[in-house]
């Protein structure tokens, strides 16, 4: 009997271009499946999990011993369709409330926050792995559960430990024997301990060759994987890159500088997991023929590559887009976004007619009165006669010929003195005359 659930999948939305997450980030995704017919679902839940595990075997004669260990970081469960919620109400409703889904495509979104803790980066090796997954489970009565899983990559947040910026120095002085005579000395230093993926390691070496043979400085960056279980350790090493410098003649000294570029594809260092460790070493040694090579080693911490600034990327994008579609009315492409050059302080200001944006002063005639230009209005206020002389110090207009504004300009009237009698009712001709009323008893 074929299942009614088809294409049951779980996925998540990328957070950035590198499709990586860190502790504290939000992971959003969706569960998708199709139903060919109506289906009763008991529950649908999603789990966010993080764990590490190691396993390897060792032979002791005819005995094979397996070493295993696990480390759990978190497990968060989120119900999309709650289990048996309706059945708790069936006693009151006299019917069983069930989660019944109709045929068709169903999409259920979800959101998780990755726990804010010191989580190691994702890793996969021959004897162990550190996995971060999101899993979905659809449970139906009398049917096998439908399951789906998706892995996501977690990168440990950048380590701001001051140790990452501390310089390192090491030196060695060795006497030659058997096939060579004399001695060689080497003093090597690097600027810091932590380097990002793709970053260059600047190696400075002061070499004194007091032997009877020519020597050649060589450089090797190698990784070291360590797995721990049942108080045992399994170690794997592999060279990442090798480089060599110019030969230094015998009885001579020289200071050489070399840039060793960390490959951008290497796994970042993992130092915060109890059962898996990923470490790196930089080995600087002198190749001496027919003799053991003197060497020095440095502990190197590989950090995640720094992503470019969004603002800078946005600026570069806008610049390139505007250059592809220049303004036909403006020369210079993006020059219209730039500020114009400021005039020299000693230069006189430009004349009024320089830009041709305004009419010449000679073309403008200013009338004696500006306001009559607005007498296109249908009605103009009438000309009111001047007020009669007042007995309390009316100040006449000092300008005998003022411009005609269509209404008489009124000057402020001086306040009456307290000793002056009040003016008569009709002094200003502002009110109608009072009628003569007969005295009534």
Automatic annotation (TrEMBL):
Domain of life, source organism: Eukaryota
Location of the Arrestin C-terminal-like domain: 180-305
One of the protein's GO biological processes: protein transport
Region (Disordered) residue spans: 395-441
CC terms in the record's Gene Ontology section: cytoplasm; plasma membrane
Family: Belongs to the arrestin family.
Protein name per Swiss-Prot or TrEMBL: Arrestin domain-containing protein 3-like
Organism field: Pundamilia nyererei
Name of the gene: LOC102202153
